[in-house]
Each structure stands twice: as C-alpha cells, then as structure tokens.
Amino acid sequence: MGMRQIGSKKSLSEQAYEVLKEAIITGELRPGQILIEEQLASQLVISRTPVRSAVRRLEADNLVEITPSKNIVVASISEKEIQDASQARQLVEVEAVGMLAETITEEQCGELEAIIQKQKDAMTRKEYLEFMEYEYQFHVKIGEFCGNIWYGKMLESISLLQRRVLILTWHLEKDWDYVIDEHTQILDALRSHDKEKSRKAMQFHIINTPMELKNQK
Questions:
Q1: Which of 106, 142, 165, 176 has the highest count of CB atoms within 10 angstroms of its CB?
Q2: CATH code, residues 12-74
Q3: pLDDT tens digits for 133-146?
Q4: Residues near 121 by Cβ (< 8 Å), separated by ≥ 6?
Q5: Chain-centre distance of CA 24, in angstroms?
Q6: DSSP states along 41-86
Q7: Domain 79-207 superfamily per CATH
Q8: Nearest alpha carbon to residue 112 among 55, 37, 40, 189
Q9: What is the pLDDT of residue 2?
Q10: Of 119 and 172, more confident
C-alpha cells in the first residue's frame, strides 16, 4: 500500500483521516478489505491513537464499518445505496441548483468556471482520478453556494459516494467531454439566473451519469 506518510504540523488525527479517506475513495483500500490499526499506524508513522480517532470519523462517513468482532472493514457499496443516492440527488440537487440560480454571484460563477477549467486540464492529461476530484468539487460547491446548510451537507455525502463508485468502476472514462459540456450548460443557466433551465440541466446531468457496480474491478 502506497499511502503517504504524514508529519506533525497539523493534527495527526486530521491528517490520518484525510489520507485514509482518500485511499478508500480512490480504491487504494478496496471494499471489504480489513484494516488493522497497528499496521495503519506503522505505515503512516504515527501512534495508534490518532488512527483510532480517524477511524471513528471514517465510520461516521460510512467509509468503514466496525464488525461485532471489532474488525475495521472498508465499507462495501450496495446497489440499494446507489439507487437511494441517485434518487436523493434528483430531489436535493435539482432543488439546490434552482435555489442557487436566484442568488448566485459572479464570484461564485467564477469558482465553478475555474473547476470546469481544471477538469478540462485533467482530461487533456488523461488524469482520471483528478478529473473525478473536480467532478466532486463542482457538485459540492453547488450545495455550499445554494444557501441551505442541510442541502450542502447532503450533497457532500452523496457526491462522495458517487465519486467512490465512479472511480471503482471507471464509468466516466470515455465520457469526459459530455461531463464537461453538461457542467458548462449548468453554469450557463446559473449565470443567466434561469431557475427552470438550471433545474433541467442538472436533472439531465444526473440522469446521464448512472452509477453502476457491475463493472467494478
């Protein structure tokens, strides 16, 4: 396992959480894999205490599960979870983008535009993991900007699951252009403060990005 070691300038538990979270999302730590605190601490070159704290946060994120026998297991993703997440996105994210269309500022448009540009750059370099990071950021920003803290939290959680599934299945590898075009259409609708057009563009994007596990490696 090639997880990076971490130093001591920040909170060790925070750094351990970030490193382990990224390893799970990118598939370096696979669904069903058993994690051992002592080994994780050794690989990260820290004590077991911050690792234990990080694991508790990962459990709250539904990224690991603690079994009755106290084993730490990387959480699997069921088809039911994916179906529920897709349904939730159509309810929450379509509403959030409609709300945002009424209040979005040029500065916020600029932030979304910068994410799309970074996604284009990642596509040019064929950096799929980086591409998916910006896919995640685009949707999380919409939740953050919409003005409803609960929509923001829900979208962050749902987008995290989506990012993990799409990385595990490499589902968008041949559809990079379409994703960027759809993000651009959403941004254009937001910039024009067209609520209905924004909602329709987001709904099309969600429907056009199905999440499936059948191609999971």
A1: 142
A2: 1.10.10.10
A3: 899 999 999 999 99
A4: none
A5: 11
A6: HHHHTS-HHHHHHHHHHHHHTTSEEE-TT--EEEPP--HHHHHHHH
A7: GntR ligand-binding domain-like (1.20.120.530)
A8: 189
A9: 61
A10: 119
Q: Cβ-count burial of 187 within 10 angstroms (0-12 exposed, 13-18 middle, 19+ buried)?
A: buried
Amino acid at 103: T
CA nearest to 120, candidates 186, 180, 205: 180
Residues ≥6 apart with Cβ < 8 Å to 117: none
| Residue 215, H or E segment | none
Token pair for residue 36? 């051992």
Length of the chain (residues): 217
Residue 68 has pLDDT above 80, yes or no: yes
Q: Specify which residues 72 forms β-bridges with.
A: 35, 66
Kindly report the pTM of this predicted structure.
Answer: 0.78
Could you tell me whether strands 34-35 and 64-66 are parallel, antiparallel, or unpaired per DSSP bridges? Answer: unpaired
